[in-house]
Amino acid sequence: MDAMARAGVDSPIQRCLDDLYAKYAGTRDGAVATYIPELAKADPDWFAICVATTDGYVYEVGDSRQPFTIQSISKPFTYGLALEDRGRDAVLQRIDVEPTGDAFNSISLAPETGRPLNPMINAGAIAATSLVAGHSAEDRLNRIVAVFSLYAGRALTIDGAVYESERSTGHRNRAIGHMLRNFDILTEDPEPALDLYFKQCSVAVDCRDLSVMAATLANAGTNPLTGERAVRHDLVDSMLSVMATCGMYDYAGQWVYWVGMPAKSGVSGGILAVLPGQLGIGVFSPRLDARGNSVRGVAVCRELSREMGLHFLRIPRLSRSALRKTYDLAAISSKRMRTQRERERLDALGHRAVVYELQGDLGFSTVETLIRRIVERSAGLDFAIVDFTRAGDVELSAAAVFLDLLVRFAASGRQLVLANAHGQRRLLRFLEERLTQEQGCRLRTFADVDSALEWCENRLLAGEPSPDARPPQVPLAQHDLCRGLDAAKLLRLEGMLEARSFRAGELIIRRGEPADSIYLLTRGAVSVTLELPNGRHKRLATLSAGMTFGELAVIDRAARGADLRADTVVECYVLPITALDALSETDPRTKITILENLLRHASRTVNRLNDEVAALAE
């Protein structure tokens, strides 16, 4: 968050969590768990929401660093450790994976075998704890705490007071343990396994830890903050499967229907939810409903899923990342040819305009990285150009994020610019309907990235000239083609030139015509265009005063290869090819100077194009 604070622009993701926190902070439904006396001491108003992404970024609001015990949220992590220690077949012989529809502390055992129906109920969790390998009870406990710490990305410890409270009141769990022993699911005295289970439930975490632990599962078992692996990636699908079907106990069906993320709750008030491949969510609020789930936690997760399109069965055509490429204006410029002085200025200022090229369908979670990248870089940014050329559908949840960023950019003197968004009718309609004069914000769109880059360049070069203003004229002596000519040679050359002018929109050169002249542009702008097979026209370059056009076809005596049209009122000098050829006899030194200037310009153009190709290939 520090980078965002320095930039002076709030994160839309953070603001979403802030809004949810404000909305549900006043909720007073539910009650703190009291069947474990130590849990009854929790402040019912504690409340936190955290979201951690698979690329290692954590958003948090509220009491996100308030410690509480992990309780039943420990179950999938211990189950994963048992799978790793004993193998999937051995674990399945002792613990099934069928949902029960019963409460968390139900005694749900298969009648014939006594096998717990899944590892998320207490019976299955106690059985899973007994399968953790170790040379001693202390060794097994240390392994559990160490693995939990890998998931959280920091060293975790046991809350001794909660452990003693659980141990002294855990009579139902003891009954479950002895039933498991009766069926030989536990092959030894159940007390050591029960004691280890009480301790694993008493590991102290905070809401931020929950989100990181969830993000580690979302990241195929590797902690996105530390890069350390907490569990083998091939076991994560088994863990997430039982979380999806059994993690919320007798609320599991409604949870999948309304929220649609593998999740696990605990009676201390925590809920952990996983969106595979993308993010993890942690919510903490001790007020519980009748099923033992956090009231605020369930409400927050339902709204997050609905507003951000997080349901794991609502599958867009996701690319690996919504962000395909980024580059700034110093690396890739517009097709408008600039003078050497302008080019130097843009090379120095180009980092202030950045293009973000999108790909794939865009939901809330897929644009999160993009938004964060823009916000984190915004301290040195004037313009962010978002290119939709390769983007698919944009969900309304993502559109809302773009709206928020657009408004906040405008408030801080920056601009978010959309390019190639003509196919995004729903997005454009959404933005246009919600932008008002009071917000002081304007939706600015361009047909392509090239025109967006040119608009940004003009702003960086002190703004576009007024459409009514007469463009400045470049004297012949300052023209690029005349560099190095003394006054006498310049006067002699001027006598060979014909002054011509063109109206805005007038065709100056037509493709296919014979090349008989070189044009020295002294006022206005000329665009070089090529007609594509589909009938559309592609701009190849735009030239401004002080530049030359038509020279390549003259040099190799080929037909004109493109159309050139006046963008504004244009004034230029025309040098006939016959006059240039005559210089070979009358003034060869002047001809050599002219050709050197043409070659220098061509070399700069080729080098610039090479740099752009290299930047696009990265």
- Mean of residue pLDDT? 87
Cα distance spanning the termini: 28 Å
Query: In what order do the strands lie side by side in the largest sheet?
Result: 2-1-8-7-6
Number of domains: 3
CATH class of the largest domain reads Alpha Beta
Indicate the CATH architecture of the largest domain: 3-Layer(aba) Sandwich
Alpha-beta content class: alpha+beta
* Oligomeric state of shown chains: single chain
Task: Assign an overall shape.
Answer: elongated
Number of strands: 21
Output the number of helix runs: 22
Corresponding CATH superfamily of the largest domain = DD-peptidase/beta-lactamase superfamily
Cα Rg: 34 Å
Q: Which regions contain 5 or more consecutive residues with pLDDT less than 50?
A: 1-9, 464-468
The portion of residues forming beta strands comes to 15-25%
CATH fold name of the largest domain, please?
Beta-lactamase
Describe the protein:
- By secondary structure, the protein is of the alpha+beta class.
- It has 3 domains: 31-308, Beta-lactamase (3-Layer(aba) Sandwich); 326-460, 2-Layer Sandwich (Transcription Regulator spoIIAA), CATH 3.30.750; 476-617, Jelly Rolls (Sandwich), CATH 2.60.120.10.
- 42% of the residues lie in helices and 18% in strands.
- It is built from 22 helices and 21 strands.
- Strands 2-1-8-7-6 form a 5-stranded antiparallel sheet. A 5-stranded mixed sheet has the order 9-10-11-12-13, with helices on both faces.
- Strand 7 and strand 8 (279-284) form a beta hairpin.
- Helix 6 runs parallel beside helix 9 (190-201) and helix 8 (171-182) crosses helix 9.
- The radius of gyration is 34 Å and the shape is elongated.
- The model is unreliable at 1-9 and 464-468 (pLDDT under 50).
